[in-house]
Design goal:
16 helices; eight-stranded mixed β-sheet; alpha/beta; about 50% helix
Length: about 375
Amino acid sequence: MKNIGIIGAGTMGVGIAQVAATAGCKVVLFDANTPQIDKALSGLEKTLNKLVEKAKISQEKATEIRNNIVKGETLQDLKDSDLVIEAIIENKEIKTKVFTELETYVSENCIIGSNTSSISITSLGAELQKPERFIGIHFFNPAPLMPLVEVIPSLLTEKTLAEKIYNLMKDWGKTPVIAKDIPGFIVNRIARPYYGEGLRIVEENIATIEQVDDAMKTIGNFKMGPFELMDLIGVDVNFSVTTTVYKEYFYDPKYKPSLLQQRMSEAKLHGRKTGKGFYDYNEGAEKLVAEKNDALYQQIFLRIISMLINEAVEAKRLGIANDEDLELAMQKGVNYPKGLLAWGKEIGYAKISETLQNLYEEYQEERYRQSSLLKKL
């Protein structure tokens, strides 16, 4: 698979193109918005120049990477691809339309992949003439830096294809894991409470945004608190993924979105990309400092980590991935300091169970129900 087509020249698309080109593949980058391709390639050149300046890569390697990527004028320019990866807007109808047209150009042996973070791979693949060649290949942002790639076969994917893509991602220098085609796959399912419970704590005036972030960083050793991370990802993007997972799980209360996050999205307070989200990133903006409170911090940490561990245990129970991949996904996909199953053992599954039981009794909400496996561990 040396000829790669990328559909979508946004941050993810050009990032995946860079990864493939770095691995020596020839890449055709296409976007329906032609000026976006020029913008993306211009940005890539700046990125490569910075890598050269920092001695991360040689000038020769930077030139090779850039020369390995060419601009596609039309979707038909992807006709010689061995693999096409789509990285466009999270909209099933738009994606399906693109795939339907793409199939008329590529060979029967061409593999078609989607970088979707939340849409069912089975539902997307079912629309193809040859659904057996379709698979989820989910990179994390920024694609050149984040090692994890979730490989998601659908119910219709040819049986050996997941292993082929798994090996290809290894060849590309990535850390692949194979996941079942369930809403959110591994990372976006298990990670939901990191944001959702943080938002809930703030909405209930139990703690401030700064305190929640500080608690998770100082006690949990997370690199970023949930609100800092939402600002980095994009408040709107994070809200969209949460909403999709909630709907796809038939409105399971565990994944219920936050009204605060919805209002932030409506106000276009999307985080770093707009200059303001939960924090203000504008020049001269006042940096609020968290008021330290050890007892409160312990309460925040235990509440959020218990929800996360419960999700990991439930994913284990459902066989969404094997234990090793579940642990690897959270560490390599969202930089968690430890695997959640290992963390559960360290804290004590009995303590996690007790915390969730107390929350359930306090709120009387299904949101806090325990995995049936948790009490058995």
